Amino acid sequence: MAGREQEIVLLPGLDGTGDLFERVAPHLATEFNVTIVRYPNDPSLGYAGYVELARNAIGARQIFLLGESFSGPVAIRVAAQLGPQIKGLVLAATFVRSPWPGWLVQRASRVDPEATPKKLRDAVLMGAYGDRELAEKVDEIVRTLPRAVRTARLRAVAEVDVRQDFAALSCPILALHGRADWLVPMIAMQNAICRKGGARMIVFPAAHMLLQTCAADGAAAIIAFAKTSAIPETQYEN
Question: 16, 41 in Cβ contact below 8 A?
């Protein structure tokens, strides 16, 4: 890459741990300094709180920013607020407003996640592309994520709408999505990108957890995007 070594900041999915980046992060680390933001298990936080956490983690640095799933709206709002600090925005398996009707997400927030059959959960998250190690990792996260935190995050999803923030972005944008993503259907992000223009989507043979099941290919797409989108450091003034 031209100029100084680049940094990418990764914002996690609904679990908030950042642990599910363990497959893609080493591939990204061949070209980036990788920073993973981890969310506290605080049920009082809404999207505004997560945006503040992400902004504090970024500080005054000029970075590439990735928001996965739940954190897509966080990344979009951070990019809108930080302007030229964001060299490029990557949106992985995510949305600009709730991918399902708000009442349905609210109802889902009241369901005990451990009551969902593991085979059904794995089919939705990983489809035919997962493996035993990943399934065990997901099971561990489901068991340890406090139910109140999961409920609060799903209720935040039910109400979020960052379409105006997304439409106003001027940074380069790359969306990554799985063709077989049942949890966050691809069509909504496709429509948002078509309305905005100037953004790119890459579709993978994957379900929702594309950064975990297509880690090498996903990282390669992000690295290629960064190489063509990098803004020289001299163009940014704090």
Answer: yes
Under 8 Å CB-to-CB from 90, ≥6 apart: which residues? 8, 64, 65, 66, 67, 75, 173, 174, 175, 176, 222, 225
d(CA 158, CA 27): 33
* pLDDT tens digits, 177-191: 999 999 999 999 999
Q: Give the pLDDT band (50/70/90) at residue 112.
A: confident
189 contacts 210 by C-beta, under 8 angstroms: no
Helix (H) or strand (E) segment spanning residue 228: helix 215-229
CATH code for position 223: 3.40.50.1820
Asked if residue 1 is part of any domain, the answer here is no
Helices and strands (H and E) in the chain: how many: 11, 6
Instruction: Supply the mean pLDDT for the chain.
Output: 92
Domain enclosing residue 54, as ranges: 6-235
